[in-house]
Amino acid sequence: MSSIQIECVAKEGYRIGESPVWDEKESALLCVDITGRKVCRWSSVTKQVQAISVDAPVSSVALRKSGDYIITLGTRFAALKWKEQLVTTIAQVDKDKPNNRFNDGKVDPAGRYFAGTMAEEIRPAVLERHQGSLYTLFSDLSVVKHFDQVDISNGLDWSLDHKTFFYIDSLSYSVDAFDYDLQTGKIGNRRSVYRLEKEESIPDGMCIDTEGKLWVACYDGGRVIRLDPETGKRLQTVKLPVDKTTSCCFGGKDYSEMYVTSASDGMDKEWLSRQPQAGGIFKITGLGVKGVPPYPFAG
């Protein structure tokens, strides 16, 4: 096992950094600052961050087959043209819930964009419960709702054989699995594959590696954990120098680097002085595993 190294590559001080996605074409990491209302792109070549400000909390970003990106913004799915800094609404959800916003989202292996909603937080992880739902935006730009009664719709990914969908509703403190139909995008037969331990705190963003193991960022837990969804066992814990680790993805030339986003919202001056890199983007090398490249939205 090579030695694990952790480096803060972008000390951006994001309020809620989230949704890291590797953009191979740009050799860059995409992410968002939800409450900071911006979509960001860190170049692994120049080591610089570019950011586009938007008009609502922006909670996830994904690649698009036709070029540029797609984002979840407020309660909207929207297209983002990077060079033109142009945002165009595609569809809106939760119209009857003005206090809701989207949270995490990811594109499935067939090019559909799965994303879930939640009520706006009063403070981190404190909110009106059961207000969220999980949705899919199809390539024809139609939207389907899978289920409601969600607290904080969060991490999501798909098994390597595309038969299982993994999903986190943060306040259930569980990583769940569903049967998943690649042809239709339908999900069913929900069950828990891992329950978080107290010191792991709140499960947040998630990704899968090429060995079919899940990596979960633990909000307020200051770590990412590697899980075996078959056995329900935790295989590895990697601790980071910040408590509010929010999400993770693999990237870099061969997808052997892990990128972890973090948050600073809810931290007082004393806490921030102890963790000056809070809200930064971290790169972890030496994990000895690789990730699966992100799928682009087909619409």
What would your notes on this structure say?
A hairpin with a 5-residue loop joins strand 10 and strand 11 (113-119). The protein has one helix at 269-274; strands at residues 5-10, 17-23, 28-33, 38-43, 49-53, 58-63, 69-73, 76-81, 86-92, 100-107, 113-119, 132-137, 143-150, 153-158, 164-169, 174-180, 187-195, 202-208, 214-219, 223-228, 233-239, 245-251, 257-262, 281-285. Helix content is 2%, strand content 52%. The longest helix is centred in the last third of the chain and has 6 residues, at 269-274. By secondary structure, the protein is mainly β. The radius of gyration is 17 Å and the shape is globular. The strands form 6 sheets. It has a 4-stranded antiparallel sheet with strand order 1-24-23-22, with no helix packed on it. The protein has a 4-stranded antiparallel sheet with strand order 2-3-4-5, with no helix packed on it. It has a 4-stranded antiparallel sheet with strand order 6-7-8-9, with no helix packed on it.
Could you list some keywords that capture this structure?
single chain; globular; 299 residues; four-stranded antiparallel beta sheet; mainly beta
Number of helical runs? Answer: 1
Shape: globular
How many extended strands? 24
Poorly predicted runs are: none
Range of helix content:
under 10%
Order of helices and strands: EEEEEEEEEEEEEEEEEEEEEEEHE
Class by helix and strand content? mainly beta
The major β-sheet equals: 4 strands, antiparallel
Task: Determine the N-to-C terminus distance.
Answer: 41 Å
Give average pLDDT, whole number. 97
Percentage of residues in DSSP E strands: over 45%
Radius of gyration: 17 Å
Instruction: Order the strands across the largest sheet as they lie in space.
Output: 1-24-23-22
- By oligomeric state, this entry counts as single chain
